[in-house]
Every structure is written in structure tokens, then in C-alpha cells.
Amino acid sequence: QVQLVESGGGLVQPGGSLRLSCAASGSIFSINAMGWYRQAPGKQRELVAVIISGGSTNYTDSVKGRFTISRDNAKNTVYLQMNSLKPEDTAVYYCNADVKKMGWGSKVFHYWGQGTQVTVSS
Questions:
Q1: Which residues contact 19 (CB under 8 A, 6 or more apart)?
Q2: Given 29, 47, 81, 99, which residue has the most CB atoms within 10 angstroms?
Q3: In the prediction, which pLDDT does 121 show?
Q4: Helix or strand holding residue 3 (H, E)
Q5: pLDDT per residue over 90-116, tens digit each?
Q6: Phi-psi region for residue 62, left (φ > 0), alpha (ψ -120 to 50) or beta?
Q7: How far is CA 87 from CA 13, 43, 63, 79, 84, in A?
Q8: pLDDT (0 to 100) of residue 66
Q9: What beta strand segments (E) does 16-76 contain?
Q10: Pairing assessment for the beta strands 10-12 and 116-120 based on DSSP bridges
Q11: What pLDDT, on the 0 to 100 scale, is given for residue 53?
């Protein structure tokens, strides 16, 4: 089995910063894309940022220039540095990974973390 464990959420004032981490562990052969999604109360889950194994990144427009996604392939860990946070960034943030597991060939499995709350408020 594969597990994704997130950390780094919390309460921060507008304009502040937080850094989220998500570590994948288990029977991992390789990880293709890793990403961060968020879901605010009453809203659908949305993609925030994604990073491919080669390092290419993509961001939703509302976070461009403020958030930075990165990954440490040796540690199977993805990070989300969030700067200039706004109240509208308040949500539960979820990590996602597309994983090839040992012994499963080219089949790709999709895993989610448990979510971490980010609250931006004064």
C-alpha cells in the first residue's frame, strides 16, 4: 500500500506564508505527477498546482506568483510554499500522487492525502 502524509497547515494572517509538505511512502516504484488540491466549504475541490517528475509545473491562475510547488524525488516528497496568503486561500489542502507500484508494471495508481487545513484570517 502507499500512503501520503501531509503537514504544515495552520492559521495565518493575510499576507503571511505557510509551507505544506506531503511525503509518500510504501511500495513505490516511481511517482509521475504530484499535486496539491484544495476544497473550501461549499465548493468543489480544485487543482492548485502540479509538478511532473521532470520538474515541469502548472498552477491555477489565482495562485500564480504567490505559490511555488517543488519536489524532492529522493524523498518522494512534494512541497507547496504559499506566500502572500489571502482569506480566499482558506481551504483544506490535499496532496495527490500518481504512483507506479513495485510489481505492478506500468499501471498507475492515484493516491490522496488526508488533507490539512489552511486558514487565512486576521
A1: 8, 79, 80, 81, 82
A2: 99
A3: 97
A4: strand 2-7
A5: 999 999 999 999 999 999 999 999 999
A6: alpha
A7: 8, 15, 12, 21, 10
A8: 98
A9: 18-26, 28-39, 46-51, 57-59, 67-72
A10: parallel
A11: 84
Q: How far apart are CA 100 and CA 77, in angstroms?
A: 15
**For residue 54, pLDDT beyond 90:** no
CA torsion through residues 108, 74, 54, 58, sign: positive
* Contacting residues for 82 by C-beta, under 8 A, at least 6 apart: 17, 18, 19, 20, 63, 66, 67, 89, 118
pLDDT at 30 > cutoff 90: yes
**pLDDT (0 to 100) of residue 91:** 98
The answer to whether residues 30 and 101 touch, using CB atoms and an 8 Å cutoff, is: no
Cα-trace Rg, the chain = 14
Sign of CA dihedral 6, 38, 76, 2: positive
**Cell output for 108:** 498507475
